[in-house]
Amino acid sequence: MLKNILPLLILLFVFNIKTEAQELSVKQIKNLIESFKKDPRGPYNRIKWFCDDGSEREPRDPCPDSIGGGIQHASFKPSVISLRKTNQLYFSDIIASLKEKEFLDESNNYNRLKQYQINKYLASVNDGWILQKAQYYRGAVQSEDEETWGKEFFESVLKNDYFISNNFYLIRQALKDVPHNGDDNVAQLMRSQSKTISEDMKAFMDIRIKIHGQPEITDIMLVKNFMAQNKIPEHLKKDFDALIETMYKFYSPIDFNRLEKELQKLPASNNTTKKINAFIVSNKNDKTSASFVSELANILSEIRHNILSYKSGKDRLQLLDLSNQLEHTLLTETQNWETKTIGETLDKISVLSCAAMGTGLIENWEYNAIETSINNKITKSNLTVNELNELLTTSRSIVEWSASMVKANYQEIVDKYTVFEPLSYSFIDDRVRSSIALSLGEAVSDFGAFVSKTSNINNDVMHIENQSAIRGLNPGYAFGELVVVDGNPDNIEVNTNNIYIFEKPPHDLKPVAGIMTVSEGNLVSHVQLLARNLGIPNAALSYNNLKAMKKYNGEKVFYAVSNKGNVILKSEDDMSSTEKELFSKNERSKNVIAVPVDQIRLDVSKVINMREVDANDSGKLCGPKAANLGELKKLFPEQVVEGIIIPFGIFRAHMNQQMPNQNKTYWQYLNATFNTANEMRAANKAEHEVEDYQLKALDILHKAIINMPLETSFIKDMKASFKNAFGNSIGNVPVFLRSDTNMEDLKEFTGAGLNLTLFNIKAEDEIVKGIKRVWASAYTERSFKWRQKYLSNPENVFPSILIIPSVDVDYSGVMITKGINSGNEDDLTVAFSRGAGGAVDGQSAETRLITEDNNVLLAPARQSDYIRLPDYGGTKKYTTTFETPILNTKNIEDIRALASKIRKTMEKHSQASNQAYDVEFGFKNNKLWLFQIRPFVENKQAKSSEYLSSISPKIEEDKLINLSEKL
């Protein structure tokens, strides 16, 4: 009997372990949250004593001093503890019970600390969140123990110079949330209280919007007048009183006497202490808002630059708390600084940019990159319209960089929480609104409105406010349904005929009619290059603009971006006859181009060494990736890896095999699919029906190719070629498999990023499977839709494959050998990210405009994660911070030299004069490695469109504007 029971018990034990370790679904987490909200103890189980020796005691039996004492707090329900193990979710942490390293969670990019902050935020905006009833559970959390632990925590971690230098923004934010000094986050409390009231009393919504968007001390009177003029429900009276009390606290003037007392705790001999003391003395009495804010910004900058000169964690904590107090004062005082002229507004932008650096929103080196450019201009009496536009671009950039710093630190964890608690999504917006970025954005908006008026760049976007933040990126026009996506776009199924507004577009975006995104994004990502190539209108807007556009979601709209960057977006009813005519069949058919197949060599069915090809073989033996890289191998033999090519002919030969369950070959099936589609069109079937048929048929083909048997002779040939080229057998060298079709880099179609690239594959069977996956990728929905929209013969797409050994680069990116925004043929636009695959997938990359004698930072990197290529194959994920630039001076010199040689040597292969190129490369130990080159293709029709020319303003770029001119 025992022999029969024992295996069953073992099976049940194993099953129980698996069950306990299983990740909870979103629905299960939501149910758990709702149960906690209704439970008087919430996530907590019961109150206990937790002793220093690890033992636990009942509430009335304290830990004796003989074992080191202990603390009393609630234990957690088993479901909460299980959630930590299965989903790495830490709800309502009691920090006094944690170890320092456990809470900091440095190895997981400070995940637990950030979750603590989001939990605090949710509690403030949702009546305690999961503690709705448990916030009254006496003794569950001991505030004194939490504060004592928090103080010790900060004094310990702030001893680490590296931690402070690399995470300055995160540290200052954590100080606002982690109890340590009897403090609280007053700004967040004020916003959450007003939000709670407006949800119960809709008439309060306008005041709530004012408090969130443009907070001023006069808001106190607004609230008081509202209470006097409206009947306040009994249950809300306490909430209104609490809000007014918080507002008085928020707008209370700085207490210089208290500041002086706190300053006495710091070493008096330190230069920064002396400067802060001098600031207090000089501002105790009379002060103007402009000079006061300017001095506050300078002190914030001084603290950031010199915090490491204080050696103890205690002094550093004192200094950072002081920094947060001064930031709060600056935020309130900035609202009193009214500017009337252009010069005054530019001064304010300059000062707030300095404050953005001092509070960690931008890095020191980023501020240094733009400081001279701004200050050199604003010290003049007159500026040209062109110089004003340059200043506006820089000013907008600082606002975007600031908001991006918040996203870089918190987006990943916010996305994790948003799937089960949508309120989490507002966390980032709340952080931005409680920062310098809000006031800086307002000043830049005022300046932008003036510059737009002076330059005649007038946007016309659905009559929303603050349109000066909107600017065009790619010229073009479109008509379709407007879809506004506020949040993670990854689960959005896009429609080819729609116009999308994204906070951030998905990196594998399928074709769309038009696109707008919050911030300019990565200029050289595949999505941006495709949009530029195909004349898809593309513009940047602010997050506030996006929110204003949400009410038009689902409407049919006309959208146009001019060559000068002004933007039109209007409803269908407001379209002119000229605009309607743009969408006649004759007009739209001009975009369609053909894949050339007249010179293709399908008879070559042997693997080719990359050294044997050059640019002339593009579209004949293989695609342009392999052909052009073969050309570069001749020009830069030490900077280009070896490679082998699986030509078009090998793919075509395999397509002659019988396709399972179809009674025809793969090739016959492919052609039959397109023939049937043409017959459906001839029979006047709706285009969406034709497309649905093709997508279903191509999905069958895609799956069949993945399972296609490879010919033995080909495998043998590939293994021999692999060893000959790379010096080792297949399975011993990690490689990239890059799709390389004949539809890429055509004269008018780039095809960038449409097919599959496989990273760092080492195992032989994975390489063999990968070949079929790359071939099949030409028939995915995304690839088909892009080429179907713009190619007249999409059935004639042939994939070749370029196989090259992996280079584990430190950082990588893309260069366009022209100024994308400036239009200057002699400039270079470069975007780089850390690790492999940099910039091409829309990462928030370090972007620069490199000229003959200068290099201008267009955007710093804000991508916190990146991948490296280990020698055992696959990828390994890392995280980074932003305290130093990616590219160094030597890198930039090497990039200039590379571009010069490419321009000279590739000219003979180009049909166009001054052909620009799209080059992918990377650096390892400061050595430049080249991976790809292709022509940079822009849409000539969009550039020459009569309509787009008609809406482009005539700008007097050299016209002088006096900075004393009124706004």
Lay out the secondary structure.
Elements: H1 2-21, H2 26-38, E1 44-51, E2 56-57, E3 70-76, H3 78-87, H4 100-104, H5 111-125, H6 143-157, H7 161-166, H8 168-177, H9 186-200, H10 205-213, H11 219-229, H12 237-251, H13 256-263, H14 271-283, H15 289-306, H16 313-334, H17 342-358, H18 364-378, E4 382-384, H19 385-418, H20 426-433, H21 436-455, E5 460-461, E6 471-474, E7 476-485, E8 499-502, E9 514-518, H22 526-534, E10 538-541, H23 543-549, E11 556-561, E12 567-571, H24 577-581, H25 585-588, E13 608-609, H26 624-635, E14 644-646, H27 648-654, E15 658-659, E16 664-665, H28 666-682, H29 687-706, H30 712-726, E17 735-741, E18 757-761, H31 764-776, H32 781-790, E19 799-805, E20 811-816, E21 828-834, E22 846-850, E23 855-859, E24 865-868, E25 876-879, H33 889-906, E26 917-924, E27 927-935, H34 940-944, H35 946-951, E28 960-962
Parallel strand pairs: 5-12, 7-8, 8-9, 9-10
Antiparallel strand pairs: 1-2, 1-3, 4-28, 6-10, 7-11, 11-12, 13-14, 14-19, 15-16, 17-18, 17-19, 20-21, 20-26, 21-22, 22-23, 24-25, 26-27
Helix pairs in contact: 6-16, 9-10, 9-12, 11-12, 13-14, 14-15, 15-16, 15-17, 17-18, 17-21, 19-20, 19-21, 28-29, 29-31
